[in-house]
Every structure is written in structure tokens, then in C-alpha cells.
Amino acid sequence: MSEELRSLLWTGSSLRVLDQLLLPSEMEWIDCTTYKDVYSVIKNMNIRGAPAIGVAAAYGMALAAREALTAPQPARFVLDAADYLKSARPTAVNLAWAVDRSLADGAPSLGKDPRAVADELAAFAGRLAQDDEDQNLALSKHGADLFEDGDSILTICNTGALATYRYGTAFGAINEAFRQGKRIQVIALETRPYLQGARLTALELVKAGIPFHLITDGMAGFVMSHGMVTKVIVGADRIASNGDFANKIGTYQLAVLSQYHGLPFYTAAPLSSFDFSIASGADIPVEQRDESEVLSFAGHRVAAEGARAFNPSFDVTPNQLLSGIVTERGVFRHPFGNWERP
Predict the structure, then answer these.
(1) Which is the most buried residue in 27, 149, 189, 244, by most CB within 10 A?
(2) What are phi and psi of 5, to 5 degrees?
(3) Enclosing H/E stretch for 261
């Protein structure tokens, strides 16, 4: 990138979160000094993107362990904090995965040495952040191999550095291809109702210098039917054992449109976004957010008074519509199921 954006910064005593609700017009940081602060920024979508949520949750656990030093029952405090953090958002598996791994890392000292737990969870969060960075870089390089000169790549939502600890997933692959000198362009969906595509992906594309056009979500079929798209790549918040995956609402219809128009359709995510405890996408919980997000725009109601809205934040795409799943280990293709190597 010519100018890199970061979603999270750890100061040693607090987690600084770039407030993505204010982008692109304002760049302000939220200082999280307690695990409840971290819960709030995840719940309220000041930070979003499955990998970024996972790293934030790990640092939330580190803050909880530090807070527990003055609690009457430190071990109980940490366990309650874990449950609280995991309840922030249900669909992205990285959240619960990071919290559970934090607990496992601190388990030997839990109930015995609160200071050791605090030190261990802070160190674990740092390792998790570095792992996310390394995995996303490897993923980006594998994904870049899918693209070639002349490609026009369609994507939805935001999957760049703002959605991860660094580099990004689907956007990381696009950016890596461009960095390698491939002559590509991007078509980015605005992504209602939070406009992550318009506010965040467009910002990252501008900063990276990648040619692109922004379109409304309803224009995807038009641009495909007019030969303006050659490949599609999206992110994933949770991938089931059979390759079904949840991603931002609107992804499923892109997969159907891609199959109809004969376009390769990929998802990109680190292996931490896989949930091997579930067999298929039917088992993925889909977050239902407040209807006000659909009934209003930029804080102003646009729907008629008395109107009601339905607001699932994600949808689930069946693996049959996938051309491949890009991970840090490479690109997995049909038949999905053996996740040891592509």
C-alpha cells in the first residue's frame, strides 16, 4: 500500500481501535482500557471484520486478566469476561475462537496465579496478532496468483487491513496482485446498510492506488451481464466443514449470479475462520441486527413511519457455488473436506 491503514494498536496498557463508523471523513481512535470497552466496540461495529474481531477479543481477554488482579475472585472474573466478550456478535467464528484460545493459554495459571494469567494473556494476544498478520500475507500471495492482467474483480464489503490486523484477506489478494504489477481493476459494492464498501473498501482502494468503480448492491447483475467482471472474490466470517460459508449479506446472490454468468467465485479467509465443529452452513448462526439500520441512512430515517425492516447481517453461500477457498496454505478446491493441504 502507498499509505497503510491499521485497525488496531496495542499500547501495552490499552487497545486503540480505529473508529470505522467515522471513516472516511474522520480518523479517530477509541482507547479501550477494559474488556467491556472491547465488547462495546465489537458490538457497535466500531471495529468489524472476522480476523480483526478475533485479535481485538484476545486483547480484551488480556485487559480482563489485568482487571482481575483487583477482583475478589480473579479466575471467576476472567471466565465471566470470556462469556461476555463471546456474546458480542454471533456469526464470526474468530471471536469465540480467540477467546477460547486465550483461556486455554492461561489455563495452567487460572485460579493459581492471577499475575501470571495477565502476563500470559497479553503475550498470547500479541502472538495472535502477529499470526494474523503472517497468515494474511501468505493468503494474499496465494490469492494474487488467481488474477492476471486485464482482470476486473468484483468484491463486497471490506476485507482489507481494516478488517484484519494487517494486509487483509480478499482485498489483500487484490492489493498483492496490483503490487506485483498486474493490470487489474476493481468493482466494489457499496454494501448496505453499513456501507463498508463505500466508506472503507473505497478508502483502501484510493490509498492503494488501484483503479476501481463503486456500485450499489443492486447493480451487480448488470455489470456481470455487460462483461464488466471477470472474477469475484469475497471474504468469510465463518466456514463450515463442508465449505459452506457465511459472509456479508448480499454474498449469496453474488455467488448465484457468478454461476449464471460463468464467472470464477472465490472466498478468502484464514483457517481461523473455519468452524470444524459444524457440518454445513445450516448450522451457522446468522446475526439479526436492529431494523433501524435499514430504516435510516446516516442517522436520518428514510422509510415511511410505520414501516418495518428485516436486517440479517450475513447470508450463507453453499460450497457448490465456490470455485475455491483461498487460505494461508493455498487455494482449496472441490471436493472440499480435506483441509490439511490444497
Answers:
(1) 189
(2) -100, 145
(3) helix 251-261
The cell 453453499 sits on which residue?
Answer: 318
The answer to whether residue 105 is catalytic is no
Average pLDDT of each block of 10 consecutive residues along the chain (342 residues)? Answer: 77 96 95 98 94 96 96 95 95 91 90 93 96 96 98 97 95 98 98 95 96 98 98 97 97 98 98 95 95 92 97 98 98 92 84
Q: Where are the domains of the chain?
A: 8-137, 145-332
Q: State residue 185 phi and psi, 5-degree precision.
A: -140, 165
Quote the cell numbers at residue 157.
464489503
What angle do the packed helices 35-43 and 50-67 form, to 10 degrees? 160
Check if the beta carbon of residue 95 is closer than 8 Å to that of residue 89: yes
The CATH-assigned architecture of domain 145-332 is 3-Layer(aba) Sandwich (3.40)
pLDDT at 3: 60
Which pLDDT value is given to residue 2?
A: 44
CATH fold of 8-137: Four Helix Bundle (Hemerythrin (Met), subunit A) (1.20.120)
**Sign of the CA dihedral with 222 first, then 225, 229, and 235 last:** positive
Contacts of 126 (CB under 8 A, 6+ apart): 10
C-alpha angle 333/315/186, rounded to 5°? 65
Cell of 298: 446516516
User: What stretch of H or E contains 9?
Assistant: strand 8-10
Question: Which one of the listed residues 132, 151, 237, 244 is annotated catalytic?
Answer: 237
> Taking the mean position of all CA atoms in its chain, how far away is CA 41?
14
For residue 188, the one-letter residue type is A
* CA angle, 15 then 246 then 250, to 5°: 105
pTM of structure = 0.92
As given in the structure block, the three cell numbers for residue 312 are: 440479517
* Helix 114-144 with 50-67: angle, nearest 10 deg: 170
Q: Is the peptide bond before 318 cis (omega within 30 degrees of 0)?
A: no
pLDDT score of 340: 85
At 307, list the grid cell: 414501516
